[in-house]
Amino acid sequence: MKYIAIILFLCNIKLYGQAPTLEATYKVLQHVDININGKIEKTIILESTGFLYRKQNRYIYFQKPNYLEQYPTGAIVVPISANHTYNYLLCMDTLQSINYTAMDSLILRHRPDLGDTRSGIFNFVQKFEQNVFNWIYLPEIKEIQGLRCQKATLAINGRPEWVVWFCPDIVMQAGIDNILDLPGLVVEGENVATKSKYYLQHYTTGTDINDSIFWPKEFLQRFEKLGDRKRTITVSPKTKTQKQIELLSNP
């Protein structure tokens, strides 16, 4: 009986290794600057809840806005004079920022917050190369929510894009929003381009995730194929992997 129990235990480890799963939720705060005639008149913070799922080598991330009841007209209205107002239009979709990544086939599926309804294009599909993003791993380590995290930054075409704290003990290949190639779970992150901040609220591993979660009803609409996403900088294995391991091995 003891031998049977040991065999079953080993089988469970093997099965988990073949089919790792993860579910995580995030608090997302987007800072929206109301810019009128070159002057920021007001800054609004829009809150959403982000959901990240991983099953084997498939990932999907999407957000559910928490501001729909606060702005029922779908706009932020700012008075600029006695007779004039400025309207900042909001995305009112109940599911937003949908990003699907298949690491086996190297395919991205993306649904922008505001689709081009005139052309009927709502979704985009794109092939990508491995190591398409050149993350810079910094020698800064801190504990967040009991997780040992390392700082990393990303610039695209010379422009700052991401600043994140990630936990390499929770192995990942994709993550929140459009993140790729980061070898760990994002615990805190900032998208510099969209002025959005992400805070991990909860995560679980080894749960049963239904395959339907990776194909939301929004994906039933038309997909437009984009050109392949290629890396623009040759990255050495030491820069991408070994350097990160070296930093974390020296607390």
Please tell me the total number of domains: 1
Largest sheet: 12 strands, mixed
Q: Tell me the number of helical segments per DSSP (H or I, 4 or more residues long).
A: 2
Radius of gyration: 21 Å
> What percentage of residues falls in helices of 4 or more residues?
10-25%
Explain what the structure shows.
This protein is mainly beta. The chain has one domain. The protein is built from two helices and 14 strands, in the order αββββββββββββββα. A twelve-stranded mixed beta sheet has the order 9-10-11-12-13-1-2-3-6-7-8-14, covered by helices on one side. β10 and β11 (159-167) form a beta hairpin. It is globular.
Could you list some keywords that capture this structure?
12-stranded mixed β-sheet; 14 strands; 251 residues; two-stranded antiparallel sheet; disordered N terminus; mainly beta; globular
Short recap of the structure:
By secondary structure, this protein is mostly beta strands.
Protein topology:
Elements: H1 2-18, E1 21-36, E2 39-55, E3 58-65, E4 75-79, E5 85-89, E6 96-102, E7 107-111, E8 123-127, E9 136-144, E10 147-156, E11 159-167, E12 185-191, E13 196-205, E14 223-225, H2 237-248
Parallel strand pairs: 8-14
Antiparallel strand pairs: 1-2, 1-13, 2-3, 3-6, 4-5, 6-7, 7-8, 9-10, 10-11, 11-12, 12-13
